[in-house]
Amino acid sequence: RICQQEQPKMPYIKVISPEDASGKLAKIYQQVSGPGGQVDNVLQIHSLRPHSLEGHMALYKAALHHPRNKLPTWFLESIGVLVSLLNNCAYCARHHGAGLERLLKKEEGNYEEYRVQLDQEQPGEPFTQAEQAALAYARKLTLDPGGIGQSDIDALRATGLKDGQILEINQVSAYFAYANRTVTGLGVDTAGEVLGLSPDATEDWHHG
């Protein structure tokens, strides 16, 4: 499923811009700002409750950018793009599609070959059998969360995935379900943003 093109719009709730922020919010904005001081709109949407912005960033870093994760970041991003497409979240699909492209260039992977597979109901090569099984699990968890059972986990194990890796697959799928609903539920848009940037380490709180 290809998400629909998102039209520029104003967020549905009040947002405090970095220029107008003070106190704790201003400090957090400084921590999460990217090149040129950019604070992504998905983070600014939390501005009325700075503690929820801290929670979002902690979950984001743990699911996607923790050094103890065993799965490669480019594949975790692939799961994020898939989940975002299924949830029709154009914002996250664009952001993390750009991030996936950047990471695959580092890995000497062909972005277009991988990206086209994420539009398929059953993604195939160049994803490995284990990666295809992980994407199938993420799809089912997104579209039919109540339908997940032990057999789905056994299918992942059968490809050689370890339980810790399965947990990573589950957590990145769950994170994007949360992020997608934050974005679509509150009218977050990509206007004015540089896409596809991410931190190099979990202790680096910069989102860009």
From the structure above, extract its key features:
AhpD-like, single chain, mainly alpha, globular
Give a verbal description of the structure.
With 208 residues, this protein is mainly alpha-helical. It has a single domain, classed as Up-down Bundle (AhpD-like), CATH 1.20.1290. Helices cover 55% and strands 0% of the residues. It contains nine helices and no strands. The radius of gyration is 17 Å and the shape is globular. The two termini are 28 Å apart.
Count the E strands: 0
Number of helices: 9
CATH architecture: Up-down Bundle
Reported by name, the CATH topology is AhpD-like
Tally of domains: 1
What's the shape?
globular
Give the fraction of residues assigned to helices.
55-70%
Question: What topology emerges from the helices and strands here?
Answer:
Layout: H1 23-32, H2 41-44, H3 50-64, H4 73-86, H5 90-106, H6 111-117, H7 129-143, H8 150-158, H9 163-186
Produce a short descriptive summary.
The chain is mostly helical and 208 residues long.
